[in-house]
Design brief:
It is a single chain. This protein has helices at about 5-10, 40-45, 115-120, 125-130, 140-155, 160-185, 190-200, 210-215, 220-230, 235-250, 255-265, 270-280, 285-290, and strands at about 35-40, 50-55, 60-65, 70-75, 75-80, 85-90, 95-100, 105-110, 135. The two termini are about 20 Å apart. The protein has about 300 residues and is α+β, with helices and mostly antiparallel strands. The protein has 13 helices and nine strands. The strands form two sheets. The protein has a five-stranded antiparallel β-sheet with strand order 1-8-3-6-9. The longest helix is centred in the middle third of the chain and has 27 residues, at about 160-185. The protein has two domains: about 5-185, Regulatory protein AraC (Jelly Rolls, Sandwich); about 190-290, Arc Repressor Mutant, subunit A (Orthogonal Bundle), CATH 1.10.10.60. It is globular. Pfam families: HTH_18 (PF12833). One of its GO terms (molecular function) is DNA-binding transcription factor activity. This is AraC family transcriptional regulator, transcriptional activator of pobA. Keywords: DNA-binding, Transcription, Transcription regulation. InterPro entries: Cupin_HpaA-like_N, Homeodomain-like_sf, HTH-like, HTH_AraC, RmlC-like_jellyroll, Tscrpt_reg_AraC-type_HTH.
């Protein structure tokens, strides 16, 4: 990563102990409505067109870019968009943006508790929305954003019902695009469910047997699946996810190396550093230094 990207990744992050979690951007107050929709320019202009990395523990966001350029960081991946696109960002995904001045589009924020039928991981719809999704929208999706904006501003009879109906229609269309993407990648349903379990339990340090039991298969079957899908054993895949989470915490937070290790179940900081070096060929401190971040150890 070059210097400009480093500055963007860590803008306003140097005094934070952990990745900031917000209800809506920098707002820590509760969510007052069934959803919130606004123009990108209305929000981004207030922050000089830069939204620093953060996450929402109980909210799903969808960005619709209509005109302009977006440089996005989503869970550590840098993406560039210069034409119409949708970015669907699930709760807990770390994301930040740099917008070109005057960028046009919408941001839709959906509190999870207000839409349990949409985001429940027990449903096909909810499972399809668990990962970030990007794609070029059709006119029907663009029209839905305009309808949501109009209905959100109004005080019409049965407003909440209409907002829920429109937002559910939008999320189904997004989920269909996500499903098409999954089909192109050819992932098995067991592997997709494993990824969901890893997202929720990687810090719990579940064993291979625990993941297999949650999927109602044996440990041997699970390793067969992970070798077919990812080319590694189940235990190796779990380790990969664990140390990817370590990388994310080292990059996006101001926790000490020891604190990062503790959050991931390593009681001995020295052992965590050795394990990190085995995976990446450098210590956690060296990894931070490579990103231009001063390290504690």
């Amino acid at each position: 990563m070059d210097g400009a990207k480093n500055e963007w990744y860590f803008s306003n992050m140097n005094t934070l102990a952990q990745i900031p979690s917000f209800s809506l951007y920098g707002e820590e107050k509760g969510f007052p409505d069934v959803l919130h929709v606004e123009r990108i320019t209305d929000r981004a202009a207030l922050h000089d067109w830069v939204i620093s990395p953060h996450r929402h523990p109980a909210m799903h966001q969808i960005f619709l870019l209509l005109d302009g350029i977006i440089q996005a960081s989503i869970d550590g991946k840098t993406l560039h968009f210069s034409k119409a696109c949708i970015l669907s960002i699930p709760r807990q995904s770390v994301h930040g943006f740099t917008f070109s001045m005057g960028t046009e589009g919408f941001v839709l924020s959906l509190p999870i508790q207000a839409h349990p039928h949409v985001f429940s991981p027990d449903t096909d719809l909810g499972r399809a929305l668990l990962d970030p999704v990007t794609f070029e929208p059709d006119q029907a999706i663009i029209n839905l954003f305009h309808q949501l904006e109009e209905e959100h501003k109004a005080n019409s009879a049965l407003r909440l019902h209409m907002l829920q109906s429109l937002s559910q229609t939008l999320m189904v269309r997004i989920a269909r695009n996500a499903e098409r993407d999954h089909q192109k990648r050819g992932k098995s349903r067991h592997f997709e469910k494993l990824e969901t379990l890893l997202t929720h339990h990687i810090k719990d340090r579940w064993s291979v047997a625990q993941y297999a039991a949650a999927l109602s298969i044996t440990s041997t079957q699970l390793s067969r699946i992970t070798r077919a899908e990812a080319g590694v054993s189940a235990s190796k895949l779990i380790d990969m996810w664990l140390f990817q989470e370590a990388q994310r915490s080292l990059a996006y937070t101001r926790m000490s190396v020891a604190e990062v290790g503790y959050t991931l179940g390593f009681e001995d900081p020295a052992y965590f550093s050795r394990a990190f070096r085995r995976h990446y060929g450098q210590s956690p401190s060296e990894y931070r230094q490579g990103l231009g971040i001063s390290s504690d150890a």
